[in-house]
């Protein structure tokens, strides 16, 4: 029989149905549970969006208060996890740290092996609450600093700044951060989300699926791009050097990080909103260099290659201007995407069939095993 069509990278393949989010590349738009993502970003907190993704509807005031109280009460990580984190190599990558911490949390979780929908939902909330605490503890341990205790009166965004930076910034900064969390929360069957669904399809539990999702997100073609963007902007140096730097990049046919997308070919729906808030950060900090450099790069990419920026392009400088160190950018993406991953884990488990595709064999023909003396 002849070779079947191979969809390398599963390009254009519908692997399942999903009612969580919808990408419409023809109109550069994205909705979560039917709401446009830019509308959610402007009008909701990240906690509201987390609730929406998991429950299917936006919370009313009482539901939101209960959700915030329930998750804020779960922010502490165990003394055992703090000890494990202190043993992490000081020069380890924060993504490896949070991947390891989530795996450890799975072993400690009181309901670890319970894959019922109710238990999986409780585990998702615990992860949502504890991930920032673990990211911050590992970051501070790598600097020889003691971890800070979460304060249950803080919002999700306030908590992240408090735990990592030791201070809560002004409202404009908190809003820009919340916007980034909302925009990063969910994006259909991207590599890390599909990884989480694939793990779930074997009947494995929430923490395993999320650990695998984090491993997938680290790659520079996926979440790792937000860090790569900031390294790139620093390498360029400023708007004056941007045209020439990019021309050299074109000469080498090198990838330009933060550009291109598998699904959006004429613009990523999340970019205008994130760019607006990154610009606000530049104003707050009084440093326009990175956004001006970005503008020159984006204009030339579009003019000469017809390639648009993706969300990581404005998110990278936004996080930098918010005062986060570059290796924390992808862990912050984890703190957001746990919401989307967990929704997909629940959806996959609710209507599961083991994910098991076929491979078309291109190796050697079948042959006998030669004796040792004849090899
Ligand atoms: N820089 C230079 N050329 C590019 C880029 C880029 N960033 N992205 C795509 N192209 C070119 C690519 O070389 C190809 O050219 P040709 O047809 O001559 O071979 C053409 O555009 C089509 O691209 P593709 O490789 O077929 O696209 P893909 O769907 O396989 O890959 C991608 C999508 C995101 C992996 C890719 O665009 C890329 O590597 N971008 C840089 C990394 C990045 O920013 N990733 C973040 C993705 S979005 C947010 C997230 O998931 O975290």
TrEMBL record:
The active site is at 261, 312. One of its GO terms (cellular component) is cytosol. It comes from the Bacteria. Pathway: Carbohydrate metabolism; tricarboxylic acid cycle; isocitrate from oxaloacetate: step 1/2. GO terms for molecular function: citrate synthase activity. It catalyses: oxaloacetate + acetyl-CoA + H2O = citrate + CoA + H(+). PANTHER family: CITRATE SYNTHASE, CITRATE SYNTHASE, PEROXISOMAL. This is Citrate synthase. The lineage of its organism: Bacteria, Pseudomonadati, Pseudomonadota, Alphaproteobacteria, Acetobacterales.
């Amino acid at each position: 029989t002849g070779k079947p069509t191979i969809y390398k990278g599963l390009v254009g393949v519908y692997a399942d149905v999903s009612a969580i989010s919808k990408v419409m590349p023809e109109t550069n738009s994205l909705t979560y549970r039917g709401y446009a993502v830019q509308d959610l970003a402007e009008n909701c907190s990240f906690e509201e969006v987390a609730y929406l993704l998991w429950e299917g509807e936006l919370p009313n005031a009482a539901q939101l208060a209960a959700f915030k109280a329930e998750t804020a009460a779960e922010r502490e990580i165990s003394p055992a996890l703090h000890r494990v984190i202190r043993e992490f190599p000081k020069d380890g990558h924060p993504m490896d740290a949070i991947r390891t911490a989530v795996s450890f949390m799975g072993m400690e979780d009181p309901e670890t092996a319970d894959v019922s929908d109710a238990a999986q939902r409780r585990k998702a909330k615990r992860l949502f609450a504890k991930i920032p605490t673990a990211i911050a503890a590992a970051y501070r341990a790598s600097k020889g600093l003691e971890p800070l205790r979460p304060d249950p009166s803080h919002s999700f965004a306030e908590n992240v700044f408090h735990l990592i930076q030791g201070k809560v910034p002004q409202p404009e900064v908190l809003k820009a951060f919340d916007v980034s969390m909302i925009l990063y929360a969910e994006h259909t069957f991207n590599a890390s989300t599909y990884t989480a669904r694939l793990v779930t399809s074997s009947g494995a539990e929430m923490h395993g699926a999320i650990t695998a999702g984090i491993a997938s997100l680290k790659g520079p073609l996926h979440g790792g791009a937000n860090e790569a963007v900031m390294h790139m902007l620093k390498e360029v140096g400023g708007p004056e050097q941007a045209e020439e730097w990019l021309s050299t990049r074109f000469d080498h046919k090198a990838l330009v990080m933060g550009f291109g997308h598998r699904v959006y070919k004429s613009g990523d729906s999340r970019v205008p909103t994130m760019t607006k808030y990154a610009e606000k950060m530049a104003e707050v900090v009084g440093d326009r260099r990175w956004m001006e450099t970005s503008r020159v790069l984006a204009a030339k990419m579009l003019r000469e290659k017809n390639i648009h920026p993706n969300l990581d392009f404005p998110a990278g400088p936004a996080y930098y201007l918010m005062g986060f160190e570059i290796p924390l950018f992808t862990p912050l993406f984890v703190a957001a995407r746990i919401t989307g991953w967990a929704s997909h884990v629940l959806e996959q488990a609710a209507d599961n069939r083991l994910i098991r595709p076929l491979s078309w064999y291109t190796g050697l023909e079948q042959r006998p095993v030669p004796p040792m003396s004849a090899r």
